[in-house]
Amino acid sequence: xxxxxxYKEDRGNEMKKVALITLKTLLAVMLIICFILLSSCxxxxxxxxxxxPGSTEWSYLWFVKGDSDLSKDNCD
Length: 76
Hints:
By secondary structure, the chain is α+β, with helices and mostly antiparallel strands. The protein has one helix spanning about 10-40; strands spanning about 45-50, 60-65.
């Protein structure tokens, strides 16, 4: 599994490096898959403080389907 030139003392460090590379690769693949799946969603995200008409609800992050009348102007 390890080359002959890797000393026993360094095998632990070598395993940590391999595990870190594998973890980074797995994370990158998972992010790409999530992006692909979410890009075909019918919902959109609105970022920034927005309010519903009449200021009954407000949030900094909204997930809305289709058109909405969320606006910063609705906030009091």
